[in-house]
Amino acid sequence: MKALFLDRDGVINIDKNYVYKIEDFEFIDDIFKVCKYYQDKGYLIIVVTNQTGIGLNLYTLDDFLTVNDFMIKGFKDHGVVVDDVFYCPHNPNLNCECRKPKPKLFFIAKAKYNIDLNESIMIGDKITDAQAAHNAGIKEIYLINNDQEFDFDCNRIKSLLEVIK
């Protein structure tokens, strides 16, 4: 199996700092088209997201799960199946193992779905997304609207449609 891994805030939806209400969740243009393209090519669609707001007590796990269900339904309404969502709910000061840039969320997905990470793709918007994917062994990494410098190959894109080949 291979997967298209996606960060949530900034890739799937507009990042409005701690999106935890349905009324604040706004899908990014072309996310459905990109996911449908890769789903049709046999990729699993998997979301990997840090949800710092839970650990900071800005919103609850139930708030996140409600928005998550809304997001999954939005994909389904556009013909895309989100196979799974893996998230880190921890306060960033805890230095947990599941928070990106650490690769644990990718390894959990790999174990659950027998994913070949070398054949998988990651789309993120922050350097921690790219670092986590790189640390997991993913070679095809895209960062949307991010010009930060780092020491490994990464494709910089301005639009999600640039990911479709």
Q: What is this structure's SSE topology?
A:
Layout: E1 2-6, H1 31-40, E2 43-50, H2 52-55, H3 61-77, E3 84-88, H4 104-113, E4 121-124, H5 127-136, E5 140-144, E6 155-157
Parallel strand pairs: 1-2, 1-4, 2-3, 4-5, 5-6
Please characterize this protein's 3D structure.
- The chain is an alpha/beta fold and 165 residues long.
- The protein has five helices and six strands; from the N terminus they run E-H-E-H-H-E-H-E-H-E-E.
- The protein has a domain at 1-47 and 62-90 and 139-165: 3-Layer(aba) Sandwich (Rossmann fold), CATH 3.40.50.
- It has helices at 31-40, 52-55, 61-77, 104-113, 127-136; strands spanning 2-6, 43-50, 84-88, 121-124, 140-144, 155-157.
- It has a six-stranded parallel beta sheet with strand order 3-2-1-4-5-6, with helices on both faces.
- Strand 1 (2-6), helix 1 and strand 2 (43-50) form a beta-alpha-beta unit.
- The mean pLDDT is 95.
